[in-house]
């Protein structure tokens, strides 16, 4: 590639380099969620999130950390073996330090040290082609997320408990509720109810079921529905009141 100069011992590494650094071609597609990657390695690493098995566990006594990614376990172990993170920020007045060079690189480029971060021009070149939608975003991945959240409600990221989510981020946030480190500390006090939750917010929503409280009302004309939680209202609006472009053409349906 003109002006590059990088050399590699085997052809596959060269091909991966060209795809990730120059052409940005994402030829490797995940069949589960549709996300695309520049190399087969990145695709395999991503596909682990669709598995309910966490293969990599910390062997430190008393530590319950586990992950699907080997590199995350390696980074985690540094917290046990190193007194201080090995990658300190060298910018004057900053005392931040990180366990990987990648984390440090992200920090240096962030708004913390980059005065042009807020003023940089954002190019939203990926436009939603859904009828009537004018949304435009910076990347193909963000566009795919937008379509799932606002239009199709497709939820390819599934937790072992059965709940499904539109993005990997939402799945990871949800999985924290299953952490062994966080007990079911919030108990329902209603007589005869044995419900318990890890989060106070979840218990508050549960209490509304006893109180028959549904403070989140649908504002669509003529609807009148109300719900105990805002997310239930959001799901109702998407399911009942949002446009449905796919119409069944079966006679009498």
Automatic annotation (TrEMBL):
Segments forming domain C2H2-type: 28-55, 56-85, 87-118, 126-156, 157-183, 186-215, 216-246
Keywords (A to Z) from UniProt: DNA-binding, Metal-binding, Nucleus, Repeat, Transcription, Transcription regulation, Zinc, Zinc-finger
Localisation: Nucleus
Residue ranges that the Swiss-Prot or TrEMBL entry lists as coiled coil: none
Any one GO molecular-function label of the UniProt entry: DNA-binding transcription factor activity, RNA polymerase II-specific
Classification via InterPro entries: GLI_C2H2-zinc-finger, Znf_C2H2_sf, Znf_C2H2_type
Any one Gene Ontology BP term: positive regulation of transcription by RNA polymerase II
A cellular-component GO term for this protein: nucleus
Pfam family, one: zf-C2H2
PANTHER family attached to this UniProt entry: ZINC FINGER PROTEIN 76, ZINC FINGER PROTEIN ZIC AND GLI
Family from the record: Belongs to the krueppel C2H2-type zinc-finger protein family.
Name of the featured protein: C2H2-type domain-containing protein
Organism annotation: Medioppia subpectinata
């Amino acid at each position: 590639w003109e002006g590059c100069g990088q050399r590699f011992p085997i052809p596959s590494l060269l091909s991966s380099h060209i795809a990730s650094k120059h052409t940005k071609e994402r030829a490797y597609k995940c069949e589960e969620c549709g996300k695309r990657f520049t190399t087969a390695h990145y695709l395999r690493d991503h596909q682990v999130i669709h598995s309910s098995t966490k293969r990599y566990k910390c062997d430190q006594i008393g530590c319950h950390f586990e992950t699907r990614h080997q590199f995350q376990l390696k980074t985690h172990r540094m917290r046990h073996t190193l007194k201080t993170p090995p990658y300190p920020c060298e910018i004057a007045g900053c005392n931040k330090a990180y366990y990987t060079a990648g984390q440090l690189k992200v920090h240096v480029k962030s708004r913390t040290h980059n005065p042009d971060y807020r003023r940089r021009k954002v190019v939203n070149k990926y436009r939603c082609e859904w009828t009537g939608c004018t949304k435009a975003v910076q990347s193909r991945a963000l566009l795919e997320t937008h379509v799932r959240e606002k239009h199709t409600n497709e939820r390819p990221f599934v937790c072992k408990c059965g709940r499904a989510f539109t993005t990997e981020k939402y799945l990871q946030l949800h999985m924290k509720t299953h952490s062994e480190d966080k007990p079911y500390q919030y108990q329902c006090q209603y007589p005869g109810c044995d419900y318990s939750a890890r989060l106070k917010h979840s218990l508050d929503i549960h209490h509304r079921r006893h109180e028959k409280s549904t403070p989140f009302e649908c504002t669509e004309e003529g609807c009148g529905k109300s719900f105990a939680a805002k997310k239930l209202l959001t799901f109702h609006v998407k399911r009942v009141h949002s446009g449905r472009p796919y119409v069944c053409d079966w006679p009498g349906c």
